[in-house]
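Internal tracking record. Fields below are filled automatically when a chain is submitted to the structure queue. Please do not edit lines marked as system-generated. If the sequence contains nonstandard residues, flag them in the REMARKS field before resubmitting.
Queue: standard
Priority: normal
Entity type: single polypeptide chain
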Amino acid sequence: MKAAYIEQTGPPEVITFGELEKPRPGSGQVLVRTGAVSVNPIDTYIRNGANYWPLPTPYVIGCDIAGVVEEVGGDVTRYQVGDRVWGSNQGLMGRQGTFAEFCAIDEQWLYPLPEGVTDETAAATALVGITAHLGLFRDGELKAGETVFVQGGSGGVGSTVLQMAKAAGARVIASAGSAQKAQICHELGADQVVRYDAQDVVSAVKQFATDGVQLYWETRREPDLDVAVNCMSERGRLILMAGRDARPAFPLGPFYVKGCRAIGFVMFKATADEQRECADRINDMLVAGRLKPRIDTVLPLCDAAEAHRRQEASTVRQSGQLAGKLVLIP
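SYSTEM-GENERATED OUTPUT FOLLOWS
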């Protein structure tokens, strides 16, 4: 089968697109014929040598997948051949990734793909959707009527947070770095959009939410926590997704006087049951049309290295060139 894989970590050029042996599903596993995959920032960190856990060799890159069940292993109870499925959390914790024509995946990490939802849509929603749902509802305890600020509302995670918060009855303020991205945020349903390249963020937020926002979602690797805390209400909650090496200044005094909470999390440490609960709700929203992932570009799987270059430029070098997800098709 064709796959995008690495045999050593390094820049995007270490990615090889070539032949690997087709996997066989083990006990509790499902063999999925891949229909679409998508790129996440963590994919580029692992490929570049982030020493989170040992990698298999060769290591197939990628977390997200949507496709069709080709074969089932022993003890599989949830799926049968021909079922359409989607999932995430692959390529992590020592597991093989998804950028291949076929993937053997533990059935606990797969979810039914509803009728009428495309592979591209499901793959683009997978990791960012589970991340957004965990952060908003399990950890952020979002309630209808509250105000949410999301940093980078046109990005993969940001656009998903925006839509889920609106679907839950929240008011949403999104930030954007250009007129084009601001328009995307408006189209996704943002009640207010702040141009961080042209406005003072704190002043703009306070004009819309006089008492501050109850939930502040920070998507950047190197957040400005002074801005975040100044935007937050009394007892506000701060959701953090910073890079592992981030060491930003922290305004402890204003933070504790307001009685705020800071919550950091990564989706891949959530249990299979927690992620499945998110997936069920995501399926409901996809079917109802309340969640539509932002797809920036669709590429063939053979362009995996180019996809990593674009993702890395946008995330690490903060080029801002992406407005949504990169999706690849075998």
